[in-house]
Every structure is written in C-alpha cells, then in structure tokens.
Amino acid sequence: MSGKRENTRPRVSASWQEKGYRMEDSPCEHVEAVNAQNDSGFRHPQDPEAWRDDPFHDEAVDENLRSGRSADLDSHDSAFWVGPDKPPTEAEIERSRKKSTVLEKKPPSINLRIFRVALPVFLVLILLAFVGFRLFYSVRTVTVVGNQRIPAERVLELSGVRVGQSLLSVTDEKIAEGFKPERYLILVSAKKDRSGNVTLYVREREHRAYLQYCGITYILDGRGMVLEQNAEEMNTENHAEGDAAEFVLPPLKIEGMDIREIQTGQIVALNKPEQLTIYISVAMELKAMGLTEVVSELYVTNPANLYLATADGFSVHLGDANRIHAKLRAMTLVQAELRKTGVTTGTIDVSRPAEPTYIPDGGTN
Questions:
Q1: How far apart (Å, rounded) are the C-alpha atoms in residues 93 and 78?
Q2: Strand pairing partners for 219?
Q3: Among residues 250, 361, 245, which one has the least CA distance to residue 298?
Q4: Exposed/middle/buried for 252, CB within 10 Å: 0-12, 13-18, 19+?
Q5: At CB < 8 A and 24+ separation, what contacts does 257-264 make?
Q6: What is the DSSP string of 72-130?
Q7: Proportion of the chain in helix, strand, coil states, percent, rounded to 5
C-alpha cells in the first residue's frame, strides 16, 4: 500500500458527462454528506433523470428483489428512526404490544391439559349415573291395599304414582294432596323398597254419625267431615260401578251441635269447637269397644253435662268429657245387670265411673 492518499473523490457516471455537465458543476464536496443521509446514492438537484443511471437507486434494483421487500422498508416510524427525544406513536405502541403478546404466549399448563381431558370423562360418568338411577331406582310396580268401594284404578289415578318415575318423587304428602278430590279416601302410608315396588295403604272414610241442620240431613265420618247431605243426594258416585248398596243413616245421631258452617267434603265448623272434640272422642271409643250399634244418640249441647241414649231405651249421664272410656265401660256393665232383671229403661249415671248409679224412670236410685 503506497503512502499516497487515495483519491476519495466519488466517481461520476458517464451519462453525467455525456449530458454536458462539468465536474466543477457537480457539488462533489457534498456527495459524501448526501450519501450518508440517503441510501439511494448520489442525487443532483438539477438533473432528476440522473437518478435513473445510478446503480444504487431503487429503480435499478431487480423487480424480483423489489417484490420481496417488506412494505415497511421505507417507513421511518420505528423507534430506531424516531430516536430517544420523540415519543412513540399509538400505532407503534399497539404493534409493540401485539408482538409482546405473541412472544409471551405460553403453552397450556399441565393442570389445564388434565382438566380438558377429565371434563368429558366426568360428564360421561354423570350421564351414565343418571341413566342407571332411572333404570334401577324407579317405580316398577304399584299396589293398592285397603280400598273397599273405591276401585284401585281410581286410587292410582288420584295418587299420581306412575311406573317409571323416580322413587324419590313418591312422598306421602304428594299422594295425600292428590287424594283431596275424593273425600272418602284417606292415605295411611306409602311404602317403597329398593326394588321399585310401591304399596299404597289406604282407608275409606265410614259413616259414623248424622245430624240435622236447617232441615237438611248430613252424614259425618269419625273426624267430623261431612260426607253426604240429604237422602236424595246420597249416591254411589266415585264408588264401584254397579254397586247397588244404598246409603243408610248410621246408628248414631248428634244433637245440640252449635254449627257455624257445614259443607260437603269439609270438617263441620262449630261455634263451640269443644263439641267436635267430644264427638270425635266418643265416636272413637264406640268404634274401639264395639258399641256403635248400642248407642243411638249423643247430646253435646252442654259440654260439661253430656248425655247418651242407647238403642234399647236407656239414658246415660256422662257428665264432662273426661274418662270417656271408663264411663262407657261402666255403662255396659250396669246395662248388662239391668237386663238380667228385665229392666230396659231408666237413667244410668256414670259421671263417676267407679260408682255408677241407676235411676228408674220417674224414680230414684
């Protein structure tokens, strides 16, 4: 390498000289500065056409190379061109954020992958459990026990229990609610087993007593529910088809009830509720002791001074409503002794059941 300083003067293309330009007309002293500021080569402000002859100009680049360039090649919006003194634009911030998001995106964790696999399996297991529950814990048979006049088909219809339904949905409350349209029907209990067999134990209300109010005859059950009213309205509706049995008045007549409201299918409403309690207690004891055919009348006008009348003509003074069972038991014993002597009338006082007394008609004990 010689010690001479190489000529760093830029070369000028032949086309420049062919067009009559002189070297002194070229601002050579500014060529290096221009080239440092521009990546397209030498530019002369007086001859734009000279750029076409510059091999470093964009238009001199092969078209195949030009098509492969990025669309943002000439963009000076990046942080490199902006410099530290000029803040980035919103577009630059958004592009940078998107690139960071893509770079920071991580593959799913192990727990997430396990969840994605376990979720379908869990759903399938739930479906199988539901199907199995429906198949193995559902109603298969329904049996009715205790009905007498009401057909079993009618009982099943009112109960709402159907073959195939879930055993969990079979409850005493729902069945009893379904029985309400049939005033004669009472649910005792509903038994069910794991095999899907359901047994409905029912009871039919019986005619226990009757009373007359405002010229109308009402028939009551043992709890004071009005089952029928008026002989002409007493029919066999809701009972076995072809049942020709006529309703007859029960042997016990109730006298002295202070009635506030009375309606078929409802418990009789009284101004003196204790009268209903007395009737229920006496009717239950008569049924339990087998005396339903013995006693013909019950007088509840004064709850503290109750009377009975027997079918064979005796009047029985009960007193208050306490110890009804003991008083009825004393009545039967005295009545049996009197029959032995041929006495069939008079008054038996059992208000003190341990010391019963007999008062003949028109006399003293």
A1: 10
A2: 210, 228
A3: 250
A4: buried
A5: 257/211, 257/213, 257/300, 259/213, 262/213, 262/218, 262/226, 263/226, 264/183, 264/218, 264/226, 264/227, 264/228, 264/229
A6: TTT---SHHHH-TTSPPPHHHHHHHHHHHHHHH--PPPHHHHHHHHHHHHHHHHHHHHH
A7: 35, 20, 45
Q: How far apart are CA 184 and CA 205, in angstroms?
A: 5
Q: How far is CA 59 from the centre of its chain?
A: 79
Please check whether residues 351 and 234 belong to one and the same domain. Answer: yes
What dihedral angle (degrees, nearest 10) is formed by the CA atoms of 330, 331, 333, 336?
170
Looking at the fold, whether 247 and 295 belong to one and the same domain comes out as yes
Phi-psi region of 108 (alpha: psi -120 to 50; beta: other; left: phi over 0): beta
**Residue pLDDT, tens place only, 28-53:** 444 444 444 444 444 444 455 554 55
Q: Is residue 12 part of a domain?
A: no
Least Cα distance to 75 among 64, 89, 60, 61 occurs for 89
Pair of tokens at residue 343: 């006495």
| Strand-pair partners of 225 | 267
Domain boundary, last residue among 203, 219, 250: 203
pLDDT band at 16 (very low <50, low <70, confident <90, very high): very low
Residue 155, sorted as left (phi over 0), alpha (psi -120 to 50) or beta, turns out to be alpha
**302 three-class SS:** coil
Domain CATH number, residue 274: 3.40.50.10960
Looking at the structure, do residues 93 and 151 belong to the same domain, yes or no? no
Q: What are the beta bridge partners of residue 252?
A: 209
Q: Which domain range does residue 95 map to?
A: 70-105
- pTM for this entry: 0.58
Model pLDDT for residues 171-218, shown as the tens digit of each residue: 999 999 999 999 999 999 999 888 889 999 999 999 999 999 999 999
What are 210's strand-pairing partners? 219, 253
Reported residue count of the chain is: 365
- Decide if 191 contacts 199 (C-beta within 8 A): yes
